[in-house]
Each structure stands twice: as C-alpha cells, then as structure tokens.
C-alpha cells in the first residue's frame, strides 16, 4: 500500500477479502515502522454503532507499490497508535 492511498484490501484470518477505508498513516522513528489505521468500508454509514478502527504496521515493497500489513507486536506500539489516533480525532473535531 502507498502512503496517501485511500482504500486498501485486507484479508482476514479466514481468508476473506474486505475493502477498507484508510483513516490515516504515519511513520515512527522510534520503531522504524510505518503504520496504517483503517476501518471496513461502509462502516461509516451505520451511525447506530461505533466504527471499529483497525491498526497494522506495514512494510512497502521496494518498488513503492503495495506492501505487507503486519500485526502490532508490542504494548509500546499500541500506546503510540492510541496517542496518534486521539490526536487525529481531536483535530477532526476542531475542524467541524
């Protein structure tokens, strides 16, 4: 996946493909990784429940195209992602 790409296809643990909307991406100097936060496409249309936001690290391929999503491995990474998400959501609220 490319930075700035707005939709990605994620394959779940059952091998099912799901089209997801990218919320935002960021890079971490501390962990030397890139991260993507995303949610299943269509989830924003259902206001009756909160959107489940997923996060993964990713390594772009050498040609700059696509990449491999990988699970978040440590509590420290989750803390960083939560902090970045809260900052993103606060900025979104200020713009409304």
UniProtKB/TrEMBL annotation:
Family matches, as Pfam families: DUF1292
Family to which the UniProt record says this protein belongs: Belongs to the UPF0473 family.
Protein name, entry field: UPF0473 protein FS935_13295
Species name: Metabacillus litoralis
InterPro entries membership: UPF0473
HAMAP family noted in UniProt: UPF0473
């Amino acid at each position: 996946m490319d930075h700035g790409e707005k939709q990605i296809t994620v394959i779940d643990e059952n091998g099912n493909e799901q089209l997801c909307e990218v919320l935002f991406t960021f890079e971490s100097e501390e962990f030397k990784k890139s991260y993507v936060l995303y949610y299943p496409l269509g989830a924003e249309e259902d206001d009756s429940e909160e959107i489940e936001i997923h996060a993964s690290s990713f390594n772009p391929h050498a040609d700059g195209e696509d990449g491999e999503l990988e699970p978040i491995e440590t509590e420290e990474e989750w803390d960083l992602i939560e902090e970045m998400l809260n900052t993103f959501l606060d900025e979104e609220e200020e713009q409304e």
